[in-house]
Amino acid sequence: MGVPKKKTTRMKKGHRRSHHHVTPNAYVKCDNCGELKLPHVVCPSCGYYKKVQVIETTEF
């Protein structure tokens, strides 16, 4: 059985988990309306993707 002989220190644990941090999402401006959106995704506010209307949006 693989049982550790000694306790893993906080420093060792921290070094091992150094890449487990959360990275913020990258946002870009929509070419059509200027709203922030995720890259390579249809704009949820206007429905445009690469200056072409892909989905119809309803105005309230």
Automatic annotation (TrEMBL):
InterPro entries in UniProt: Ribosomal_bL32 (IPR002677), Ribosomal_bL32_bact (IPR044957), Ribosomal_zn-bd (IPR011332)
Annotated Pfam families: Ribosomal_L32p
BP GO annotations: translation
One GO molecular-function entry: structural constituent of ribosome
Keyword Ribonucleoprotein: yes
UniProt-annotated stretches for the region Disordered: 1-21
Keywords: Ribonucleoprotein, Ribosomal protein
UniProt family annotation: Belongs to the bacterial ribosomal protein bL32 family.
Protein name: Large ribosomal subunit protein bL32
